[in-house]
Amino acid sequence: MSIIEVRSLAKCYGQGETAVHALRDAELDVQEGEFVAVIGPSGSGKSTLLHLIGGVDRPSSGTVTVRGLNLTGLNEKKLSLYRRRQVGFVFQFYNLVPVLTVAENVTLPLMLDNLKPDKVWLDELLERLGLADRRDSLPNQLSGGQQQRTAIARALLHRPAIVLADEPTGNLDSRNSREIISLLRDAVRHLGQTLIVITHDPAIASQADRVILIEDGYLTEQSAVRTGG
């Protein structure tokens, strides 16, 4: 069953001779519980696709439908609710608040939404991600891998239907990269979530159920590459 349906999706920045076509007529279906890797050269449209699916940006034309909800028809208030409650974002730069502890950073989005975190689930997440003994640490007391794990815990705490990760291992060494992707993959499968990861790392892409290639704004290939593991 498709959780995400992308139809004739296009995004253009600017007009006339200076126009930049970041995404052109993209068609994509993502199944519930699927792990999809998005690859392609820098500037090819990968992040644009992710931002449109995440409701961070609006398309120039076409539609994104998530669980039957057409994002293009939503006003800003409803789009904000969609982002906060249906999507978990993980970025290359961890975006942690330096004066807040691990636990406080993880729960911050829920607190801003006037929602109380599930303390049992919070404890389980921190344990699962190897952060149980660092919950009271500040970001500057953590390694890069621990900071990214904190960002993943923050993205997963509200149990989103979709997790979108934009180069989540870009600042990490190969060992930490493998560990972070393994943790992220296992966490979302534990919850039956859908995971879309932008990556330049073939080793990460090889762990996905499917690989999407984007070049010059065109979604040019969809290939099943999973070999197990």
Q: Which helices and strands occur, and which strands form pairs?
A:
Blueprint: E1 2-13, E2 20-31, E3 35-39, H1 46-53, E4 61-66, E5 69-70, H2 76-86, E6 87-91, H3 102-112, H4 119-128, H5 144-156, E7 162-166, H6 174-191, E8 194-198, H7 202-205, E9 210-215, E10 218-223
Parallel strand pairs: 3-8, 3-9, 6-7, 7-8
Antiparallel strand pairs: 1-2, 1-4, 4-5, 9-10
Helix pairs in contact: 3-5, 5-6
What do these coordinates show?
Helices cover 33% and strands 28% of the residues. The strands form two sheets. The protein has a six-stranded mixed β-sheet with strand order 6-7-8-3-9-10, sandwiched between helices. A four-stranded antiparallel β-sheet has the order 2-1-4-5, with helices on one face. Residues 225-229 have low confidence and may be disordered. With 229 residues, it is an alpha/beta fold. Helix 3 runs parallel beside helix 5 (144-156) and helix 5 packs parallel to helix 6 (174-191). It has one domain (2-223): Rossmann fold. The protein has helices at residues 46-53, 76-86, 102-112, 119-128, 144-156, 174-191, 202-205; strands spanning 2-13, 20-31, 35-39, 61-66, 69-70, 87-91, 162-166, 194-198, 210-215, 218-223. Strand 9 (210-215) and strand 10 form a beta hairpin. The chain is globular.
